[in-house]
Amino acid sequence: MKTKSYAANSATTPLSPFNLVRRAPDEHDVHLEILFCGVCHSDVHTVRNEWHGTTYPCVPGHEIVGRVIKVGAEVQKFTAGDIVGVGCLVGSCHTCESCEEHLEQFCENGSIFTYNSPDKHSGGVTYGGYSESIVVNEDFVLRVPGNLDLAGTAPLLCAGITTYSPLRHHGVTQGQKVGIVGLGGLGHMGVKLAKAMGAHVVVFTTSQNKVEDALRLGADEVVLSKDESAMNKHLNSFHFILDTVGAKHDINAYLVLLKRDGNLTQVGVAPEPLEVDVSNLIFGRRNFSGSLIGGLKETQEMLDFCGQNNITSDIEIIPIQQINEAYDRLVKGDVKYRFVIDMASLRVNS
Ligand SMILES: [Zn+2]
Ligand SMILES: [Zn+2]
Questions:
Q1: Which architecture, in CATH terms, is 159-290?
Q2: Ion ligand 2 residues within 5 Å by Cβ
Q3: Which residues surround ligand 1, an ion (CB under 5 A)?
Q4: Measured in angstroms, how far is the CA atom of residue 280 from the centroid of ligand 1?
Q5: CA of 241 to the centre of ligand 1 (A)
Q6: CA–CA gap between residue 205 and residue 219 (Å, rounded)
Q7: Which ligand is nearest to the CA of 95?
Q8: Which residues pair with 17 in a beta bridge?
Q9: pLDDT, tens digit, for every residue of 46-91?
Q10: What's the pTM value of the predicted model, to 2 decimals?
Q11: How many Å apart are CA 177 and CA 162, to the nearest integer?
Q12: Domain 2-158+294-349 has CATH 3.90.1150.200
């Protein structure tokens, strides 16, 4: 099926209209019309080949909310008209140890990501959500709670699960002290989710002009990370710290804020290695770890949790024709806090 989309043809050319071909849905597939797609920093890294290995043309987008048009004969969970989501994953082997534990993001035979992954159906690569429709195996389609704003829900599919999964994995609960480092697309979701889990949330930021916003989003305290005496007041006090910063920064300044056995989890990907002073881990038996999105079961749990707590992302809606300008603004950190493409703009204009 011929499908309108926006693609990059090289690392240095702007995204532009591209007609791709979606497969006809098989008996286990769901065909959905895409309503909204969030713009993740990974989209920019992939389009610009900053992580290497991008195949062009590249159609990014893995924060997808849409309406089911059609389902295959064997599909039980969905029917035409349902509002659904698709995140970063569209396939995995289903049989390895990670898949059996519902951790498809760590599939030992290779997770199939929503874009720029080998596509066994087409023989090419997968094409993501900057398009008018997508065909996805039902196991990788998620139910969207009926009470949530659909545009604000799109970023939950990547930014939401990326922050929810480590908070849950490390047992964040009522009354614990939790730090969120960085207040961008990921950080602002971390604040909302940790707060809804009942934590005392402290935001660390380098910028004075984010203080007010952090408090509005639900933070109990905000610390300017360059203020050494403000940092020192929090020594040895955190159960958990979620670090969302995707640039080189001093991780040791945060490790020393953890309590004994506390955990600092990194979800931002810095382009160069971070230096860890291991004495900060040894004294206090502290842990330094990482986390990658979440499996399908946990992503559904996150969406349901957001439905119960009325949590969506703070967004700026754009037509697809403004995507290149949005990338430039995203790189500068000039967005509160996620761009979401209104895919109706693709159907109307190009
Ligand atoms: Zn993403
Ligand atoms: Zn697997």
A1: 3-Layer(aba) Sandwich (3.40)
A2: 92-93, 96, 99, 107, 109
A3: 40, 42, 158
A4: 31
A5: 20
A6: 12
A7: 2
A8: 6
A9: 999 999 999 999 999 999 999 999 999 999 999 999 999 999 999 9
A10: 0.97
A11: 19
A12: no
